[in-house]
Specification:
This protein has helices at about 1-20, 60-75, 95-100, 185-210, 230-235, 250-255, and strands at about 25-35, 85-90, 110-115, 125-130, 135-145, 160-165, 170-175, 215-220, 235, 245, 260-265, 265-270, 270-275, 290-295, 300-305, 310-315, 315-320, 320, 330-335. With about 325 residues, it is α+β, with helices and mostly antiparallel strands. The chain has a single domain (about 25-335), classed as Deoxyribonuclease I, Chain A (4-Layer Sandwich), CATH 3.60.10.10. It has a 7-stranded mixed sheet with strand order 5-6-7-8-13-10-9. It is globular and about 55 Å long.
């Protein structure tokens, strides 16, 4: 009887691992909106998000935020399970991500955590979670996205990771949080163009070695799919022209008036997951079908203004007013088979 039980456990474990490595996986991205811890870091400008600050960012609010971020990511997967790859921005540090994987539904799974250490003026960083039963980390680098020739500013570094999947695929992942439009779209555009150039230059290197390299570029680009930085510099569109161009299914969603961010009474797509053509119609390993790109726009992440009827993302704060919401951005996700 003991041998039968033991053999059954081994068989179930094999089936589970087989399903994880052979079945479809979800890749998700989320701008978390100011996901800070509650500890004062003397080397960072985090005073705004502390218990004694006007935001009153305390343990209760931090744990609420942690659970809400986990709920959003959990909801990006059709059926049971969690996304295999998760890009996250507007996080303070690696410790926040480690809390996410140890104190939420992620705790029952084995996830690796990567985080940049950026010179950003607001002390926010960029992170990546990866399921260690599916992927092995080969290399992690940070790409400097701050253009030294443009003014006095510092922005988030770009996270670049090389992962090897259990099925043998090598996947190159870029997680981005490009400079904002705070000074105005046109005034700030050169900053985003520079960030796009850093990603494109690295992709050119990868494609020179392997024309069918499998690349995922995800992030809050603070630009729409039809803006210069993405369309012309990054060379990403829903109708790639050249062999090395990238495929952006979110250009189609943006044209359909869907969106991840609501501003000036308009939904537009700022958050995107872009893939190389190595994923399109791949004969082996992971492949991507354009129909499998989504925006998580469920009721629980939305706020409806009772007076105007306007619908927007349910955010955590507006100024110093606490709403106990999720984020001012919606998450995006794709499925690769």
């Amino acid at each position: 009887m003991t041998k039968i039980i033991f053999s059954t456990i081994i068989l179930l474990s094999f089936i589970s691992n087989f399903a994880q490595t052979k079945g479809p996986i979800t890749v998700a991205f989320y701008n978390c909106e100011n996901f800070f811890d509650i500890k004062d870091d003397p080397n960072k400008k985090d005073d705004e998000f502390l218990p004694e600050s006007p935001m009153k960012w305390d343990e209760t609010r931090y744990m609420n935020k942690l659970n809400k971020v986990a709920q959003v990511l959990d909801s990006t997967v059709e059926g049971p399970g969690l996304p295999a790859l998760v890009g996250l921005v507007e996080i303070e540090n690696k410790e926040v991500l480690e809390d996410l994987v140890s104190k939420s539904q992620f705790k029952d799974k084995s996830y690796g955590v990567i985080c940049t250490d950026s010179p950003d003026e607001r002390s926010i960083d960029v992170g990546l979670l990866y399921n260690k039963t599916i992927f092995t980390l080969v290399e992690f680098k940070e790409l400097n996205a701050t253009n030294p020739a443009i003014g006095d500013y510092k922005t988030r570094n770009i996270l670049f990771a090389t992962l090897k999947a259990k099925n043998g695929d090598v996947i190159y992942v870029f997680v981005n949080h490009w400079p904002s439009r705070r000074e105005g779209e046109k005034e700030s555009e050169p900053r985003r163009v520079y960030a796009a150039e850093q990603v494109r230059n690295k992709i050119n290197e990868l494609q020179k070695k392997d024309g069918k390299a499998k690349v995922i570029v995800m992030g809050d680009f603070n630009d729409h799919p039809d803006n210069n930085s993405i369309l012309n510099i990054l060379k990403a569109s829903d109708k790639p022209k050249e062999k090395g161009d990238l495929y952006n299914a979110y250009q189609t969603l943006d044209a359909e008036k869907q969106g991840t961010h609501y501003f000036d009474k308009e939904w537009r797509v700022l958050d995107q997951i872009i893939v190389s053509q190595g994923f399109i119609g791949a004969k082996k390993g992971y492949k991507f079908e354009p129909k499998n790109a989504h925006i998580l726009k469920k009721d629980f992440v939305l706020y409806k203004n009772a007076k105007t009827g306007e619908v927007s993302p349910s955010r955590t704060y507006s100024g110093t007013k606490y709403y106990n919401g999720y984020s001012d951005h919606l998450s995006v996700y794709i499925t690769i088979d």
